[in-house]
Amino acid sequence: MPQDLPATTDPIHLDHSGHFVVDAEAARAELEALGFTVTPYSAQVQPDPVTGAPSLTGTGNICVMLPEGYLEFLVHTADTPIGLEFLAALEHRAGLHLAAFAVADAGARHADLQAAGIEMRPVVHFEREVATETGTETAAFSVARLAAGTMPEGRVQFLVHHTPAALWQPRWTGHANGARALKAILVSAPDPAETAARFARCLGRPAQAFGAGFRIALDRGALEILPEAEAEALVGAAVDPGRSAFVGLRLSMPDPALLSDRPGARRLGASLALPFGAALGAGIWVFDPL
């Protein structure tokens, strides 16, 4: 029988989103055309539990680092279990398949979720080398991930950054478009109440009515669950008909109108909606003014 998570006041942040893409350089070109600064490509590795030698996890990435949160764009690197899982999701569709939430203690979060009856993978420790202005540095993370298939939207994980300065380098957090923060991940849901209840349970935060859908506010950032028809109208196409899916990103920037000449852009009050380009898969950017 599912149990409620223990009550906690520990902060939880929307840390990053994850796009699964075919070509990192094509994704880079689309992002740079929107005025984002994009990090160099980096392959993710996991230390061998016995020897400590690094081995490929199965994915590599480029990132858009924001002052608050970041956007990750993943590609396949090896046929590991995670790499093969990535390929299966990518074969289904390119686009958003991952939501990551930052917590104070990944191990404690893993134990709480498991005790609540949520199936979990073991906590893992990942590393990747990142370029710095003086050489390279190792970015290290501990990650607690829900078991594959637990959430139909894709990969949901909780993590701790052990070396945040390696990622949030000032040279990567400034963007020509002025982007400041990852404010929300948007979800398309055939049954918004069911989707909201699942996420509220694993996030330990209540789902509040939000238009015809729901919003789960975190200590920083949020998850917005939209009825499927509303999400389809926003995106301009059905992303994953009949299935709950991550379909959009809400970001803040000083003046969304700077992107109003991009193909498919349209105003939503003071905000701007813009379809993801072909290299990023089906989905929508929503840019809000600061």
From TrEMBL:
Classification via InterPro entries: Glyas_Bleomycin-R_OHBP_Dase, Glyoxalase-like_dom
Record flagged with keyword Disulfide bond: no
Occurrences of domain Glyoxalase-like (ranges): 14-202
Q: Which SUPFAM superfamilies match?
A: Glyoxalase/Bleomycin resistance protein/Dihydroxybiphenyl dioxygenase (SSF54593)
Q: Which organism is it from?
A: Alloyangia sp. H15
Q: Which UniProt keywords apply?
A: Plasmid
Q: Does the keyword Protease apply?
A: no
What protein does this entry describe? Answer: VOC family protein
Provide the organism lineage as a comma list.
Answer: Bacteria, Pseudomonadati, Pseudomonadota, Alphaproteobacteria, Rhodobacterales
Domain of life, per UniProt, equals: Bacteria
